Amino acid sequence: MPTTLFDKLWELHEVAVLGDRECLIYTDRIFLHERTGSIALRGLEQAGRDVRAPGRVFCIMDHIVDTRPGRGDVTLVPHGREFIEATRHSASRAGIHLFDVNDPRQGIVHVAAAEHGIVLPGMSAVCPDSHTCTLGALGALAWGIGSTEAEHALATSTLRVSRPRSMRVNLRGETAPDVTAKDIILHLIARFGSQSGRGYAVEFAGPAIRALAMDGRFTICNMAVEMGAFTGLIAPDERTIAYVSSTKCAPAGPLADLAAAHWRELRSDEGAGFDLELEVDCAEISPSVTWGTNPEQLAPISGVVPDPDAFADPRKALAAREALTYMDLSAGTALSSIRIDAAFIGSCTNNRLGDLRAAANYLRGKKIAPWVQALCVPGSSAVKRAAEAEGLDRIFRAAGFEWREAGCSLCFHAGGESFGGKRVISSTNRNFQGRQGPGARTHLGSPQTVAASACQGYIRAAET
Amino acid sequence: MNEKVFHRGIAAPLPRPNIDTDAIIPSREIRRVSKEGLGEALFAGWRYLAADSREPEPDFILNKARYRGASILLAGENFGCGSSREHAVWALKDFGVKAIFAPSFGGIFFNNCALNGILAIELEEAKIRRLTEWVELAPRRHQLEIDLEARQIRWREGEAMRFGIEPARRALLLEGLDSIAATLRKKSAISAFEEADGKRRPWVYQLPDV
Q1: Which of B27, B204, B209 lies nearest to residue A412, judging by beta carbons?
Q2: What is the DSSP annotation of A150-196?
Q3: Which among A52, A199, A268, B184 could bridge A272 via Cys, Cβ 3.0 to 4.6 Å?
Q4: In a shared domain, residues B105 and B181
């Protein structure tokens, strides 16, 4: 019987059926970070329980750690040190892998997990972090959990999971040359809504997905959670296999061929039935930014801020009205007339080497507007080194960007650095109220859009 | 009777859709590696006049006298979307919230609620609207009664409104099961899975040489 990619992944990890939809699912890899992993490790300690398979648990400092050069345990986040030290202590006690503050393998957990090959196609991976779905771009079953669930995974190597339904989003046709992976996923969230994926594992398919480099595929799956999805998935292809085969943890020797043969089976069979299939015509997608406080509140950069009264759904109208008040915008304003105070290139959504290259390509020989504060924060220490080897850091610096150490940084305001009160063009994933600081007004867009807007001082697409 | 099974309390409407976990508890309010004492930080961005103050914002619903002591939220769709931070649930619990009704919830938040004994119940929007309209007339007198055993809310003049809940979730809330202990009883099934899977996918079990 033809089977979906998701069904194959689920069945590969099914230890037991517990109830109607609930199964005991095996977790091949567990990731933790100092913000939510520390409390999970402590909870386990307090309950007197051991980590069942410590060799397959990886803890990485990314959320609270500073990104200023010369960083250490002391952070701009008040009490940040407590999180770092508690995490280090618990990790060493539990005997799990730890990529500490200045470890060369350090990075945002979802970036590091992929680039070192810790997660490979077909594996299951969990982390108490909603963007764990990023790794679905490898054809892995990866999803975000809470800290209590993380304790369960650590203690048992399994989780009790209610089986999600399967959805496939088919992208028809090709995208215009100036459309990035970020524009695609933002478009899907806006088109179908920020809870359209609720209860589903969403497979992204079609020639426009196949055409994306791995970095773009990570961007797509990263924001599946912004559709409310359990996870996002992209079937592995030769590009995926080449990517993972070049990583440090790739299977070697005879196992390499065995693994590759397994990975090539990980796709939805012709005729496989999904609970829901959606279609999108790529010709409808253009470079876009958000204007509101939820990622679904999106418009093309060439467009205007919509009129809340124009929404047929009264809830969406209410949300739009509240968003515009917070964003200090009025209906009909051209997006390209919105002046920005800050520009941020970073986060697990958009700070891999391909993202930095794309932004640097625009910035070469240009300067940011004098009133703009601009930051570039690589996704991992490895991405940072690779970018520096290509001289990208010099381009960012010459343009007026700060060049930082790897971490989550100002994707969210944790009490330290802040975009409070500022209007920010940001390559991140969430434009929620106060996300980047009290009163910060966030416009989400691609790294290219952030670069172009930083230079113009107003929201701009890279091509205009 | 166990409070989880049967709860009676003041309900506060929060109808705005997509209330995210950053709104429920801003990251800057998470100051300790601890689950305790987070109630003060609940909805901090809306509840206080400024980020660095604890002076109540009089217009925020939970600060209004008529909703003081609210323990039930009548929320909008996609409540608890966004970040997986379980601190959002710990803050709600510490504040005294026992139950949340919404047309839909963020998936991770939904699971986190059940694991912490908070009743997160999906209820059609029309039903929530009816409850809200009734509650708003006199929040302190028009309290809601939740009977998880019978899967119903009792409201005006004892009228019952049914709600649905997955059996596993209901059992977890009713019995407060230690799910780790329950899973550890399946240790032999887990080991058997690993042994078979180790032959099928040996590379998964080799410790990565990172």
Answers
A1: B27
A2: HHHHHHHSEEEEEPPEEEEEEEES---TT--HHHHHHHHHHHH-TTT
A3: A268
A4: no
Question: Cβ(A128)–Cβ(A145) under 8 Å?
Answer: yes
Residue showing tokens 């649930």: B89
What are A320-332's pLDDT values in tens digits?
999 999 999 999 9
Distance from CA of A372 to the nearest CA of B (A): 24
CB A287 within 8 A of CB A301: yes
Q: Is there a domain that residue B144 lies in?
A: yes
Best mutation site among A14, A30, A35 for testing chain B: the one with the most B CBs within 10 Å? A35
> B195 and B111, same structural domain?
no
pLDDT of residue B169: 85
In one letter, which amino acid is A196? S
Quote the number of domains for chain B. Answer: 2
Inter-chain CB proximity A160 and B77 less than 8 Å: no
Name every residue whose Cβ is closer than 8 Å to that of residue A366 and which is 6 or more positions away in sequence.
Answer: A399, A455
Provide φ and ψ at B15, rounded to 5°: -75, -15
Contact status, residue A411 vs residue A429, Cβ threshold 8 Å: yes
The pLDDT tens digits of the residues spanning A312-322 come to 998 899 999 99
Is residue A461 helix, strand or coil? coil
Contact A198 B203 (CB under 8 A): no
DSSP B151: T
Q: Which domains does chain A have, with CATH numbers?
A: 17-161 (3.30.499.10), 288-456 (3.30.499.10)
CB-CB neighbours of A116 under 10 Å: 21
Beta-carbon separation of B167 and A19 below 8 A: yes
pLDDT in tens, B146-190: 999 899 999 999 899 999 998 888 888 888 778 999 999 999 999
A82 chain-B contacts, CB cut-off 8 A: 32-33
- Chain B: residue whose CA lies nearest to A34: B33
Residue A37 CA to residue A34 CA, distance in Å, equals 5
Query: Which chain B residue shows the shortest CA-CA distance from A156?
Result: B184
Residue B155 lies in a domain: yes
ipTM of the complex: 0.95
- Helix and strand numbers, DSSP H then E, in chain B: 9, 8
How far apart CA B51 and CA A179 sit, in angstroms, is: 38
Query: Is B166 at the interface with chain A, CB within 8 A?
Result: yes
Do B107 and A412 lie within an 8 Å CB cutoff?
no
Q: How far is A439 from chain B (nearest CA, A)?
A: 9
- The answer to whether A26 contacts B193, with C-beta atoms less than 8 Å apart, is yes
Are B10 and B54 in a shared domain?
Answer: yes
Secondary-structure percent of chain A, ordered helix, strand, coil, rounded to 5: 40, 20, 45
Helices (H), A223-313: 238-245, 254-264
Report the predicted TM-score, pTM, of the whole model to 2 decimal places. 0.97
Q: Are residues B198 and B114 in the same domain?
A: no
Give A60's pLDDT tier (boundaries 50, 70, 90): very high
